[in-house]
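User: Can you help me understand a structure? I only have the sequence.
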Amino acid sequence: MKGKRQKIYSLSVAGVLLIFLLASAYTTWNRLDPEYTCAQCHEIAPSHALWAGSAHAGVQCIQCHGTALSNGFHSLKEKSRMVWVHVFGDKYNDDIHLTETQVLELSQRCIECHQSEYAGWLSSGHAVNYEEIFMDSLHNTMEKPYWDCFRCHGMFYDGDIHTLMSLSGESPQEWTIRDERQKSRATMPCLACHQIHTENPVSDRYISMSDTTGKTIRHPSTAHYIRADKEYLRSDHLTRVKIIDDSLIVNSATDNNTLLCMQCHSPNFQRHAGSEDDRTPTGVHEGISCTSCHKPHSNDTRESCAQCHSSLTAEQVDAVYANPHGYKTLHNISK
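Assistant: Let's start by predicting it. Here is the structure, written out as tokens:
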């Protein structure tokens, strides 16, 4: 009997030591430079190379990606599946993409460092959820939801429009979102406009592609996620949209953020200024960048008028802001 107890005791001690050693080894693995751990695998090496030359180079992988134990059984199951696919699955680099759930979880980690940006986004029109977009009865009356809606609203959604919604019936009031949990999810999270792994040293200033001074180039921090290709295109590589006001070509801004905005805030197929979701400024504001008036994350414009029109009173700014043709009033006041 005594020998049996001694054996059980020895096995218990050995088990505790084994668990301790495994936990220590796993913790050490997560803390080491990924060049000698994760990046040894060909799937991770390109992302590591981009991360090493980015503004996030001082941020450890686990601060964004978490560990197998950071989110309880959910993360353990997820990491175990990744290891299984890596060892036994037939996968290629192009097959590795974040699911929408993972994108939203990652966005929550962005908030830990970018709290002011998050607060701005939360107060903006870009913080809308699936219910606000796809259950808008007024918009649905004019246009029935279809696959291209995801190009701007739900770039990371894993299904199609029929996976998301039941569109049976003629009336928009009959249409519903199938999954109740999907209703409150953000359609435009941080990663819709920001590519995390992108070569972008934080110490160098941004210089546009047209700059010929030969100075160090810092790439823009924004990029457009193309749902169809599941790839990012850096905002300064985006094509300028040709917009027509009556028969004249609008002289629109060409800075990287304006090019990014115009991917979703674009005109109709005839490229008429002000059609569809186009917000390109015309008249006295023609050629002005979006971010000259809109704060990058909150999109607020209330303080922008005074930057160029310092003589305006608060009451005049409010009057201009509330008037759809306020730019004409602003032009007359500024004379």
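Now, to help you interpret it: Strands lie at 165-166, 176-177, 223-226, 231-234, 244-245, 248-249. The longest helix spans residues 2-31. Let me know which part you'd like to focus on.
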